[in-house]
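ARCHIVE CARD
Drawer: 12
Card no.: 0347
Subject: one protein chain, sequence and derived structure
Cross-reference: see card 0346
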Amino acid sequence: MKKPIPDIVIGRLPVYLRALQHMMDAGRSVTSSQELGERLGISAAQIRKDLSQFGEFGKQGTGYTIEFLAQQIQAILKIEKVWEIALIGAGDMGNALAAYQGFNQRGFHISKIFDSDPNKIGKQIGDYKVLNIESMESEIKKANIKIAMLAVPASVAQEVTDKLVDAGIKAILNYAPVSINVPEGVRKQYIDPAVHLQRMSYYLK
């Protein structure tokens, strides 16, 4: 039975992909694990070990063809297609996420936005109108959306999470400043800028 790939390895793949895309933008065609490592602050041996978990993508002495390696990592991460995303919360954070163009360039597209505030429902954010959160489950099921971003107050984050799971969501990126519980088979990631600032402030003199 094939051993599962450690999550820490999966977490480094998007970092490799971003560096490769920057190289392609600069007109580069070939790189090496040594160069990637110097760019990213990761050892060349670690990069080779990570990539070897998925196959052989380069040749000793000649390195990696950048476009080919980028395509392979995109396939591993399943972002050779565009994933539709439901955004829950149309406050300051929700508006910022909806306006961010980087998602579209990396395989993701916010296609539905929900909120419970009557003053926000019906308003336009980008190309989409804010929908009533009461229709969230049916809209997500109808569109077969599997990924959600949670930008709601901490007090309602778990309640909304439960509804997202019931709607068939399998991955949640949580911007709410609170931990959420999900059943087995549903992935969750947290992005709380204050937590990362607190982690860094420890090292300041």
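Annotation on reverse: The first helix runs from residue 7 to 25. The beta strands are 30-31, 58-59, 63-65, 83-88, 108-115, 124-125, 128-132, 147-150, 171-174, 187-190.
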